[in-house]
Amino acid sequence: MDIESATQKIRRFFRKNKRLPSYQEMCRLFGFASKHASFKLAAKLIEAGILGKDDKGRLIPDRLLPSLPVLGIIRAGSPTAADEQILSSVSFDDYLVAKPEKSYLLRVSGDSMIEAGIQEGDVVIVEKDREPKEGDIVVASIDGEFTLKYFRKRDNLVFLAPGNSKYSPLFPAENLTLFGIVISVVRKYH
Amino acid sequence: MDIESATQKIRRFFRKNKRLPSYQEMCRLFGFASKHASFKLAAKLIEAGILGKDDKGRLIPDRLLPSLPVLGIIRAGSPTAADEQILSSVSFDDYLVAKPEKSYLLRVSGDSMIEAGIQEGDVVIVEKDREPKEGDIVVASIDGEFTLKYFRKRDNLVFLAPGNSKYSPLFPAENLTLFGIVISVVRKYH
DNA sequence: CATTATAGTGAACGATCGTTCACCTGTCAA
DNA sequence: TTGACAGGTGAACGATCGTTCACTATAATG
Hints:
The structure is a homodimer. The first copy, chain A, is α+β, with helices and mostly antiparallel strands. Helix content of chain A is about 25%, strand content about 30%.
């Protein structure tokens, strides 16, 4: 049983059960008859940095989580491994949603932010209770209308600007309520 | 100890340790002196659908995972809970990356796909070993140049089209190698 | 051939696991 | 005042946990 296929099997187990297998379960997973075989294999995985250990000796995932390789574009040539490893080990959940208790998702309808690269059908992650800065994309209700727009502030004048030259900026006549600022955008093609 | 604050503490533990606490650890977490108190509290959380149980009696997360509310835009009015719950319980990892073993990440440079809503600095998730269909966005090497473009096929003529009217379509003179098709896009603002 | 290393078996240990049971409070309604 | 009940304590159980040790089988090396 080589390390790579073992990693793959453990990863599959972890994705399915949301936890790591015990040594006993690894035996079923790998076809071992003895727990000690799993124990030694796990030691190798720890050595390889794929698994880790708790303060109290329990197995914990380390580089087991979907660590997609991050490639960089070199102008001419094939894609090569990028030096930055920011995304490689972190889950998208942690990467995209900093404060899950203050966030919600919104499926975008309309084309008012299309020049900002936000299309119909995209999902935006919105964080509440945060002071918007000039240029942020915000979810707002302006005079009863509910929209996704740029937050603009010019000489103490606050208004909402669309990311689409077909539309005009919105100046609040009566009421402007902010429901949060957009911290990330997600799009899925297939 | 009410259910909500217990859920919050367990969620915090799970995010930190990538696993659920044992009843003993819950005692430290909740300030209990007896495991049985944790046991009964966990029973309530299971009743509430927040936790679940394994085939073998182990605790597993159910609705504990970061379940961001998905809101929908009603034309006039405040955002309300959307009927679709696709995203609510699924992690972004599972949502965005269908086949992690065949995927990689690419940080986008350049503006050649800006009209497709893909900007400089965005991260695209690319899946390898997949036959591109007309209109797919692909990562390709054309005559030694490495790019992100639309895959076009017209009357058996294959070429690459940019998502930016400033640029022209690229017709392969010698060589066209595909490195995968873009299945999702991720952008982070803050 | 002998030797060393690698991989797996199998038994055993103390610790921790989930679970059950009996008991001890308070609080609130009858 | 009484009884029921919910919430927490504490001890106990068998099962499983991680870990250790001694042993076997196979392959590679000299």
